């Protein structure tokens, strides 16, 4: 994978909470693999294992 440099977009790629940077699931999916840092919105299964690139299945919201 080629390293691609880009700017982070606040409230799209990350948000701040109590002084911590929290990456969004959108950003983490685009990253392509788990970093193993126990990210709150880790979209990979199994979670928090560096190098894993299998996305977890998402369930659609219930329709009313």
| Major pleated sheet | 2 strands, antiparallel
**Strand numbers in spatial order across the main sheet:** 1-2
The number of distinct β-strands equals 2
Give, in order, the helices and strands.
EEH
Helical stretch count? Answer: 1
What is the straight-line distance between the termini? Answer: 42 Å
* Structural category: alpha+beta
Helix content: 10-25%
Q: In one word, what is the shape?
A: globular
The overall pLDDT, averaged over residues, is 87
Strand proportion, as a percent range, falls in 5-15%
Uncertain parts:
none
Instruction: Domain count, please report it.
Output: 1
Rounded Rg: 13 Å
Summarize this entry quickly:
By secondary structure, the chain is α+β, with helices and mostly antiparallel strands. The chain has one helix at residues 25-31; strands spanning 14-17, 20-23.
What's the topology here?
Layout: E1 14-17, E2 20-23, H1 25-31
Antiparallel strand pairs: 1-2
Features:
64 residues; alpha+beta; two-stranded antiparallel ribbon; globular
Overview of the molecule:
The chain is of the alpha+beta class and 64 residues long. The chain has one domain (9-58). It is 11% helix and 12% strand. It has a two-stranded antiparallel ribbon with strand order 1-2. Strand 1 (14-17) and strand 2 (20-23) form a beta hairpin. The radius of gyration is 13 Å and the shape is globular.
